[in-house]
Every structure is written in C-alpha cells, then in structure tokens.
Amino acid sequence: MAEKNKRGEFACQWVDEVMPLGEDRKTIFVPMPDFAKLQSQLDEYVAKASADMLALVAVLMNTLVARFGEEVWGVTEKVMYDIGYQRGLEFASIMKIDPTDARSIGRIFDLEDSRIGVKGEWVETGKKRAVKREFYCPIAETAALCPDLCTRLFAAVERGTFDAIGAKVKRFHIAKLIPKGDPYCEAVIELED
Predict the structure, then answer these.
(1) What does the pLDDT look like over 66-81, one tens digit per residue?
(2) How many domains does the chain divide into?
(3) Cα–Cα distance between 187 and 178 in angstroms, integer?
C-alpha cells in the first residue's frame, strides 16, 4: 500500500513473515494480521479509542503534575520504560530487529504505528542514524492537550524497548511534534559508533 500526502509518502507492505532488513530500507514491512479484510474498519476504531484514552491520560497527567509537581513525570516515565522493556523482547523476534542497525531498530515504530494508524516515511535509513517523519497521527490533536505524553512518556517506552533488544543508542529524540505545531512528528535514532 502506498499513499502520497502533501508532507510525505507512506509505503507499507503487509507480509506473512518479516524478513531481516535488506536493500529496501524505506518500505515499512509489518506482519499480516489475521483480520486483514477488516483492517480499515479496525484502524478507524482503534484510532478513535486511542484518541479517547489519550485525552483521559492527558487530563490526568496535567492534573497530577499541577498538584504534585514534576516528580509525577519521573514516576510515570519509569513505569512506561518498564512497559517498553517488556515489549522489546517480543518485538525483537517478531520484527527481526538487528540492534546494530538504526533503521532496523526503527521497525519498532513500523509495528506500533501500523497498530494505531500513524502514517509516515523514513527520510534517513542509515545503519547509525535513522529518521522517521510521521505526517499523520490520529491522536495528534488530542496530544496537544499535553505534548509531554509524546516527548516524555512515549519516548520512555521506546528507551525501554531499545534497552531490551540490546541497542546501543547514543541519542533518541523527537525533534518535531505535530501537537506542538510542527507539520509532522520526527523521531531520530542515533547509534553509538
């Protein structure tokens, strides 16, 4: 499936089995779900449910931080890191991730984005540095209530996942964010030399 958008191109290929990353470093390969025929309907429902849940979490986090201070972020980030670590072990085998290749590590985003309806493209696909621009996110409008959900909590999940798969990440950051007014979200993975 390929889709053009004014901010980029989304190319996704559903496969029976994800193979090790080869020469095609831009196409997003994700495992074919059993419910493939219902995928578009399910995507819509998942996106709506995700946005609703995120709105609840955004209000909750804003309220807790206002009442108890920055410590709330630290505690919550630790929980999210642990969640990421647990899922990392499963993701590594499903997605055939090479922890020494930044684009291969980026397959984590390919899988999670496909599950919640995020669309984007890889604009850098190197072994030491990979950059993904996500130009459509069904929860972006809701995340504007609390952009730290993306920059702190979701990033903590990714850090946990990276550690679980043994990736030597020099730097991971979200350089741009739709909920902060940018035209797209941009996730950057840089590996140690």
Answers:
(1) 999 999 999 999 999 9
(2) 1
(3) 12
